[in-house]
Amino acid sequence: MNRILLFVPLAIFALMGITFWVGLGIEDKTSLPSPLIDHPFPEFELGVVEDGRTLTTADLQGKPALVNVWATWCPTCKAEHAFLNELAADGVRIVGINYKDDVEKARDWLAAFGNPYDYNLSDPKGKLGLELGVYGAPETFLVDADGIIRAKHIGDLNADVWKKLKPQFDAMSGAEQ
Amino acid sequence: MKVVLMMLSLFSGSAWAVIDGHKYPFDDVESAARFEQLSEDLRCPKCQNQNLADSNSPVAADLRDKVYELMQEGQSDTEIVDYLVARYGDFVRYKPPFRLDTFLLWAGPAILFGFGLLLIIGLRRQQKQPTAELTVDEQARLDEIKAKLKNDTQLHKSTPSQKDTGA
What we know:
CATH class of chain A: Alpha Beta
Order of helices and strands of chain B: HEEHHHHH
Largest sheet of chain B: 2 strands, antiparallel
Structural class of chain A: alpha/beta
CATH topology of the largest domain in chain B: Helicase, Ruva Protein, domain 3
Number of helices of chain B: 6
Largest sheet of chain A: 5 strands, mixed
Oligomer: heterodimer
Strand order of the largest sheet of chain A: 5-4-3-6-7
Largest interface: A-B, 20 and 18 residues
Distance between the termini of chain B: 95 Å
Shape of chain A: elongated
Shape of chain B: elongated
Mean pLDDT of chain A: 90
């Protein structure tokens, strides 16, 4: 019996090791879970970068969309831009939020690198960003046809990430048709 | 003297909280203190090891401004914290709420402590048992051995002195 007890510290150590391995190693601390999943997209009334017209939350509804938060000062946004162009070419509706940025700079950027967006909402003070819990561009939300946020991705959107999000987006599009 | 009085009157009427070079004016000292406390209790979502007061990241500045704005609207501390939790999640609080999924976080240390206590009690009991089970014969043998050991050590102790006298 005493022999077995000798192994208790080792067992505790192993248990702690596994716990920390899982807790610190696998979990990605840089992407926080969003409390907005399955909640309606926050109310907004903002100008559009491309032509200056004003849009509201109602304009977002009707068709599922990727809502992509970006800015010209954000290097990762540049990195994901080519992939967004590809998605748009495949018929995915992408709505942009030009976050804490300058409208002129945003227009220049879209002219230079292509415009994959249905339209871009200008959010110069980051007010809508704060409502969305944005803490680092780029961030992308999956919003269904009823304007409900269904998923959120933090960081650049690339082929690997899209592989995971695409089934959900396709299901949303299928349900609407 | 006039100048000193003027300066004093300025102090009495208002208060400032200064964070990262940005001044937040308040009507009274209590509100400024409340603001500073809130900024220390809330966590910056971008730089996760800093609170809103310590961090100079843009998002922390935005959240500080929002806290200030909500305070000016007359919202309570819990309302302000709830507002940020609704958008950024429980992560913005340094003190997580007690829920089913945070049960281990709160009760874990107590459970581990209880486990350790039980382990110590169990070990103690086992150590006591053998001494209680000695029979009369065994006890007699033990005494014999002890006495022998005692003699041996006394013999050893006397050796050096014998050496001394021999030399």
